[in-house]
Write a structure and sequence with these properties.
The protein is of the alpha/beta class and 251 residues long. The chain is 46% helix and 16% strand. Strand 6, helix 7 and strand 7 form a beta-alpha-beta unit. The protein is globular and about 55 Å long.
C-alpha cells in the first residue's frame, strides 16, 4: 500500500529501460518503494537496470514484455499482479521513429503507432483492470507535448501520443471513484538517449526533472503533469494559433 504521502511501496514499470522510468524508480526507491518490477524485452540493458536498482536496496524482478504483442499482455501482467498488490504502474515505453524515413516507409510509421498507441491501450487497460480489482493504485502514463498539436517535423510520433493522451484521459474519467488514480505526464523535449543527436528544443528537460514532477504529482494526486510546468501555458497558446500561421513556425 502507498504511504501517507502517496508514495508507492511497489512499482511496475512497463518499459524497463526507459531513462525517465528508471529516474522515477530511483527516486521512489529512495523514498518508500521496496518492490520494483521492470517489464521489457529481455536484454543486457534490462538486467543492468535491475542490478542498479537492487544496489539501492530494492527487491527487483524483471519480466519479459513486448508492446507489439498485445495478445500476451493479459497473461504477462496477470502473473505480476498475482504475486501481490502493485501500488503504481508506470507506462513508459515508446519509440520516436524517424519522421522522414517513416513517411517513405509506411510500415515503419505503423510500428510507431502500434508501439506507442495500440500497445499503450492494451497495457493500460490490463493494468487498470488489475488495479481496480485490488481496489487501489496509480496508473501513470508518459505522454508528450508532441501530442498537443501535430507538427510537420514529427506528426507521426505526435499523433500516436495524441491518441494515447486522449485515451488515458478517458480512462481516468472511467475509473474516477474506483480508488484507481490515473495521471498523464506531458514532458517537453527530454535530454536522453532517444533524443541524442536531435536539435534541442526550447524548455528542454531531463529524466530526473520528469521523475521529480511525477513524484509531486503522486503526492498531489494530479491528473495531468506538464514538465516543465510552463509548457501548459506555451502549448495552450500554440493550440490556438491559426493553422496558416502555425505552418510557418519553425516547429
Amino acid at each position: 500500500m502507498k504511504d501517507a504521502f502517496g508514495i508507492p511501496q511497489s512499482l511496475l514499470v512497463l518499459g524497463g529501460t526507459s531513462e525517465i522510468a528508471l529516474a522515477t524508480a530511483r527516486r521512489l526507491v529512495a523514498r518508500r518503494c521496496r518492490t520494483v518490477w521492470l517489464a521489457g524485452r529481455p536484454s543486457p540493458a534490462l538486467e543492468r537496470s535491475a542490478t542498479d536498482l537492487r544496489a539501492l536496496g530494492a527487491d527487483v524482478h524483471t519480466v519479459a514484455f513486448d508492446a507489439l504483442t498485445p495478445e500476451s499482455h493479459e497473461t504477462v501482467l496477470g502473473k505480476v499482479f498475482a504475486e501481490g498488490d502493485i501500488d503504481m504502474v508506470l507506462l513508459a515505453f515508446g519509440i520516436l521513429g524517424d519522421q522522414a524515413h517513416d513517411e517513405r516507409e509506411p510500415a515503419s510509421a505503423v510500428r510507431v503507432a502500434q508501439t506507442n498507441y495500440t500497445g499503450g491501450v492494451s497495457a493500460a487497460l490490463v493494468s487498470a483492470r488489475a488495479l481496480q480489482a485490488q481496489g487501489h493504485g496509480s496508473l501513470v502514463v508518459l505522454s508528450s507535448v508532441a501530442g498537443e498539436r501535430a507538427r510537420r517535423s514529427n506528426f507521426i510520433y505526435g499523433s500516436s501520443k495524441a491518441g494515447l493522451d486522449a485515451f488515458t484521459q478517458g480512462l481516468g474519467d472511467a475509473l474516477h471513484g474506483t480508488g484507481v488514480h490515473v495521471m498523464v505526464v506531458r514532458p517537453g523535449f527530454v535530454r536522453s538517449k532517444m533524443t541524442a543527436g536531435l536539435p534541442e528544443a526550447p524548455l528542454a528537460t531531463t529524466p530526473e526533472a520528469v521523475a521529480t514532477a511525477i513524484e509531486l504529482g503522486l503526492r498531489r494526486r494530479s491528473e495531468t503533469v506538464w514538465v516543465p510546468g510552463v509548457l501548459r501555458v506555451v502549448m495552450s497558446a500554440l493550440r490556438h494559433v491559426p493553422r496558416e500561421l502555425f505552418r510557418r513556425l519553425p516547429v
